[in-house]
Amino acid sequence: MPKLWTGVTAGNTSALADDFNSSIRFDKRMFRQDIEGSMAHAAMLASRHILSDEDRDSIIAGLAGILQDLQDGTLAVDEQAEDIHMFVEQVLTERIGEAGKRLHTARSRNDQVALDLRMYLRGECDEITALIKKVLEALADLADANKDTIMPGYTHLQRAQPVSFGHYMMAYAMMLLRDLDRLKDCRRRINISPIGCCALAGTTYDTDRRMEAELLGFDDICLNSMDGVSDRDFAVELMGDISILMMHLSRMAEELILWASWEFQFISISDAFTTGSSIMPQKRNADMAELIRGKTGRVYGDLMGLLTTLKGLPLAYNKDMQEDKEGVFDACDTVKMCLQILAPMLATITVRKEKMMEAAQKGFINATDLADWLVKKGMSFRSAYKISGQIVSMCMEKGSVLESVPLEEYRKYSDLFDETIYQAIDLKVCMEKRISEGGTSAASVEKQIAAVRSVLR
After folding, report:
1. What residue spans of 269-406 are helical by DSSP H?
2. Which of 14, 49, 156, 454 is catalytic?
3. What pTM, to 2 d.p., does this model score?
4. Would residue 277 show up in a list of annotated catalytic residues for this protein?
5. pLDDT beneath 70: ranges in the chain
6. Active-site choice (52, 261, 277, 380)
């Protein structure tokens, strides 16, 4: 395709340079945003009498035809074009003639690409938000079905205190609620229009930037034209938010992998989301969860790549900024794939309640409750802590658990012990008496589930 920027230069770049310079291989995915932006631009130009109504109508009809043809596959993007903006303009001019050449009045590719990217990422925010909500639904359902399922809670990967599996699931739900909030806030900063900033200094034409922004669904305009074309904070912020989201998904995936292992056997992941070994017939590998964990590093890399690209750029636009799109596109694609696989994987896991209870019983996770019982009988916490530790040590030596220690054995450590100790250290009682807001009791978990579902509604 001929180069629309020939003028002071003849445009006789080498084929190697053309290929190196081209961005159409990846920016072609923004064809809808590019065309919609151009329609709004034509409407604005006509409203300011910079473009005739006849040219406006011809341009908008031509652009609508191109959009339809691209969508139904009757028109293919020519990858010999330099970028999606040049491709659309050249096809438009071929179809409607001279009017197509007037479309680029009072704008530059600098503000055009910033516009397209903001519009595209605005849509990506909405898609990612919808997918997060699917995962939240699965977590809420799992929690609701398991608010009484006892399992060990861990610190330092050591069994610590009894919690419900429902409470555990709600911990991840809270992380995802924060991710939703971050994306909502990020979308607000994405939704600022750069169109009309032109190359960097604005334009001599009497344009109406706010009209164009309103037509395209933006909340405001970039107030400084140099910043408008060179700002990629919104892309960095979205990638940062996605990186935090991927961290949460990776932590969840790690626990699913552990819990599905033979050593834990807390859950079983559906065959639909596991693979086998090519040599070991007994294996059920949690490959989908492992890939989520692995792809987190990829998203982190995308973020660091863009931060590094931007760190030394002078104002305003520089060709380096062409490197923004592949990373942010990849980060968005990756997180959407991970969310799409995680929601049904969570919805189909089998919770092995008996294995969780067995681990809870063998972990002395009611030792804190033993100490608390002594404190309520009048003993200082530090003394109660020491006695509880000594009893646990005795149980470990004998291969027993706190619930099976005879009362006379307890009384060797303190005369305060009586029959009520056994109810106090019953695991279900231990879990249910943690009634503080946000705790692991069934009533508390129900409130957490209700909070999540209120957001989903």
Report:
1. 287-310, 324-347, 353-362, 367-376, 381-398
2. 156
3. 0.93
4. yes
5. 1-11
6. 277
